[in-house]
Fold:
Amino acid sequence: MPLASIPSPSQGVWYLGFVPIRAYALCFIVASGFGIWLSERRWRARGGERGTIGDIAMPAVIFGLVGGRLYHVLVDWQTYFGPRAIKEPYQALFVWEGGLGIWGAVALGGVGVWLACRRRGVPLGPVADTIAPGIAFGQAIARWGNWFNQELYGSPTTLPWGLEIDQAHGGLPGTLYHPTFLYESLWDVALGFALILAGRRLRTDRGRLFALYVAGYTAGRFWIEGLRIDPVGGVDHAVTLLGLRINQWTSIVLFAGALIFLWTTRRKENEPALEHSA
Structure:
């Protein structure tokens, strides 16, 4: 028998004494840990020094966390600072309540990786290619934090895998919604495996595998974003341009940029230090 619906968790926070244990934060920690573990294995498989990825990961995670929150606050500034704000300005710092923009996380996280690579004297291209699958798998895990928070779900649906959302989180009685967190999680898992396969069979040096990650992720994010009904850029409705949401336009720009990068670097020689693509 097919599922009639996908239930949402009744709570996303548990208490160990007076200490809150938040599912959203746990998903982020597990995602980061798995991504680092996989990237370290891939780095060593291609001849890299043990511990390099671990050293690079700390600034990458910190910068990525800051960047992800900045992107969210900048895009949804009206939620915290506008005349119709529904949250207090200081709540913009409450990362545990949800709200991390992947675009900002990858962009500023990339700055952290670049700085760490410069400090260690490691070429950025091979590192970027090494961590690309780990980022995809990490995103697949992190998306389950949205499930616990009952946020970023899609439009109503009658499909048998519709998601239940309670009224406290904007759901309507008897209505099911597209589980966009699940769609993106599955897409990211498939993307992670595709990147590993591409790294073994194709010439993906000098950051080209990372560019494939960007192209693959944005392609999926474009159509998944189109299903969502959360008010990105506004308070009670999403800001759109020519019928597309902000994150869809971001996906288009980054997808095009990734394709341009892949095209212009198609005849580059491999990095001399690490020739094998893991």
